[in-house]
Amino acid sequence: MPFDAEGLDYLSGMGEDNLDVYGAALDGEETLRECLEADRNQLVDVTVEGFIDAWSSLLPEVDRAVLTDEFGEDVIADVQEAIRTGVDGWVDDMLAFVKPWGFDLEEITTPTIIWHSSEDLLNPFAHGQWLARHVPAATSHLLEGEGHLSTWQAAPAMLDELLGRS
To answer: Would you kindly state where each structural domain of the chain is located, as residue ranges?
Structure first.
């Protein structure tokens, strides 16, 4: 979502931890880096249970429920690999999220598929709804009752749809 999207309160519906990170991003790179370094320190050796506790404001019950067994371990492994050498990529992403994109979404002509979920506390449902209204000819799957992580249960359908378009 463009941070300056007209007709959307970008931060509304986000979990508290996300609001803190976006606030730090808006304060600038130095503040953001300090914030993300603190988050990284929490995540470097975290267990699934520790992850759920540390990020409780970002994980609705539907996401907590899928963080079990192999999927939970895979999520943790992915998070830890992403921050293994530091937070530079995370900093770059967060700073990019709060800046204008430099193009109008109505200019998109490439076929686009949007998957979004009503219980997502990282990227609120209003973001997916807004994108569905503003990206021409987008195919949208706006899922009720799913979260940021539980939506991955739809990965086979996502891949089938992508392969069907190739």
So the answer is: 16-97, 105-165
